[in-house]
Amino acid sequence: MSVSIRLSRGGAKKRPYYKVVVSNSRSPRDGKYLEQVGTYNPLLAKDDENRVKLNEDRVNYWLGVGAQPTDRVARMLDKAGIKERKATNNPQKGEPGEKAKERAEEKAEKLREAEEAAAAAAAAPAEEAPAAEEAAAEEASTEESTEA
């Protein structure tokens, strides 16, 4: 008989309450179980100590006998420090593909070029402004000399 540590649902509609039970893996979710080893109330705050209650001695016994926890129960056991769980997700799965990376590089390059062009355009009028002031000063001095 394969034994699993899993959640058994209770509570009213839209107000779930779970028992952490040890049961035959072939029995129904809310059916007959061998032993209740804890409770889980998802309606409580995540930092509340009453959200997950586990009888550590019995959980360790059943794990020693060969009971396999479900994914959700394994997370609870890991958080409680009873059984360490390895991460099952693939960190490379969320990375963009090659074409998306190429598009992102092209977009960043175009943005860089636009910033450089804007900086060059901002620098060019600044250089022209003193030259325009000098030209105006020269015209004024020539006007003064013609009047004299």
UniProtKB/TrEMBL annotation:
Residues 117-134 have a biased composition (Low complexity). It holds the Pfam family Ribosomal_S16. Residues 95-115 have a biased composition (Basic and acidic residues). It comes from Novosphingobium mangrovi. The keyword Ribosomal protein applies. GO terms for cellular component: ribosome. Residues 79-148 are annotated as: Disordered. It comes from the Bacteria. Keywords: Ribonucleoprotein, Ribosomal protein. The keyword Transferase does not apply. This is Small ribosomal subunit protein bS16. Signal peptide: none annotated. InterPro entries: Ribosomal_bS16, Ribosomal_bS16_CS, Ribosomal_bS16_dom_sf. The gene is rpsP. Residues 135-148 have a biased composition (Acidic residues). Belongs to the bacterial ribosomal protein bS16 family.
